[in-house]
Amino acid sequence: MIKTPLTLDVFIIMDTVARRQSFAKAAEELNKAPSAISYAVQKLEDQLGITIYERQGRRSVLTPAGELLLKNGRDILLSTHNLALQAKQVATGWEPTLRIAVESLYALPDFFNRVDTFLKSHPYIECDIQEAVLNGGWERLLNNDVDILIGATTQAPQHSGLRVVNIGEVSLKLVAATHHAKIKNIQASPHAAINELRHIITHDNAQTYITKSAGLIDGKQHCYVQTMQQKIEAIKAGVGIGHLPSHCADLLIERGEVIDISIKPKIHAIFLAYKLKNKGKALHAFSQLFL
Predict the structure, then answer these.
(1) In Å, how far are 47, 83, 192 from 40, measured between CA atoms?
(2) Cα dist. 286→42, 105, 122, 212 in Å?
(3) What integer pLDDT is reported at residue 86 of this predicted model?
(4) pTM over cut 0.85
(5) What's the rounded Cα separation, in Å, for the pair 33 and 43?
(6) Alpha helix (H) residue ranges in the chain
(7) Topology of the domain covering 8-91
(8) 8 Å CB contact between 266 and 172
């Protein structure tokens, strides 16, 4: 076991002296004799073989070594404070980390506004957020890789231990870049052009389940990507056409970067899901923000 003269009590003394700018005032706040404060600092200097404070007239000023100790000591005090709060949370049923899978089609501004609301009320809970595509979210949920799935668009797997709740819908628009090489053909005859053009397809990120492909159409050419952001950039670059959720498509249309070439609107129900056996209070509080 590593032994060190650096204790929480020493860091508390240094922090108090710095805040009150006086050994005497620090002693008063800590309900100690001034001599006890001076002794603690002197003992630490002797044990470390350094000078922590220098006398400048009537003032005691931190040396560079003392400033280093104070800065890092405050970080340690904050960490121990947070650790105590997290331990209390765990003891009372609050998870220290909430693992969340969010479907790539879900509106991220809406999602992160809810995350922000959650973290303002529960600042000591960490969020681990992952992007899910199609069956990838269900797989992670069933494998206990995440605690909750937000925005799933595919049918829930046959599993009696899940709570699955409809939380709305998402509409998809088929779009093409305004500078696409065949934009005139697209505008003149969308039906014919759609099957002749390259389609940008988002891979299902499930590893073992039967995978699907988002936006797959029986065309001649496909270009596969891993994330929604990659799909957006590929479409904007004119690599191909593809379906985007309306909250993404509408913004790009407004900017003049893409045009809507949809023939028939696609609308998908979206779901929130978690395992019924998960009784964590953080999971419950977070899920309520979507219900």
Answers:
(1) 11, 26, 84
(2) 50, 19, 10, 29
(3) 73
(4) no
(5) 16
(6) 8-20, 23-30, 34-48, 64-91, 108-121, 135-142, 183-188, 190-194, 228-236, 246-254, 281-288
(7) Arc Repressor Mutant, subunit A (1.10.10)
(8) yes
Residues 6+ apart with CB under 8 A from 174: 194, 241, 242, 243, 260, 261, 262, 263
Between β-strands 198-203 and 213-214, what pairing exists: parallel, antiparallel or unpaired? antiparallel
Which residues fall within 8 angstroms of residue 202, CB to CB, at 6 or more apart? Answer: 104, 133, 134, 213, 214, 215, 224, 225, 226, 227, 228, 230, 231
Token readout for 278 is 């998960």
108-121 and 281-288 helices, crossing angle to 10°:
130
In the CATH hierarchy, which fold is given to the domain comprising 97-168+270-288?
D-Maltodextrin-Binding Protein; domain 2 (3.40.190)
Asked if 262 contacts 173 with a C-beta cutoff of 8 angstroms, the reply is yes
* pLDDT, tens digit (0-9, with 9 covering 90-100), for 87-145: 777 777 788 899 999 999 999 999 999 999 999 999 889 999 999 998 899 999 999 99
Domain edges within the chain: 8-91, 97-168+270-288, 170-264
For residue 213, the SS3 value is strand
- 8 A C-beta contact, residue 155 and residue 279: no
Q: pLDDT digits over 36-55, tens only?
A: 888 988 888 889 899 988 87
User: CA 230, CA 105: separation in Å to the nearest integer?
Assistant: 13
| Coil/strand/helix, residue 210 | coil
Look at the domain 170-264 and name its fold. Answer: D-Maltodextrin-Binding Protein; domain 2 (3.40.190)
Q: Given CA atoms 47, 51, 56, 60 in this order, what sign does their dihedral have?
A: negative
147: number of Cβ within 10 Å: 22
Which residue in 288, 291, 289, 284 sits closest to 94, CA to CA?
Answer: 284
Q: Predicted confidence band at 77 (pLDDT cuts at 50, 70, 90)? A: confident
Question: Under a CB-based contact definition with an 8 Å cutoff, are residues 114 and 144 in contact?
Answer: no
Same fold? 8-91, 97-168+270-288: no
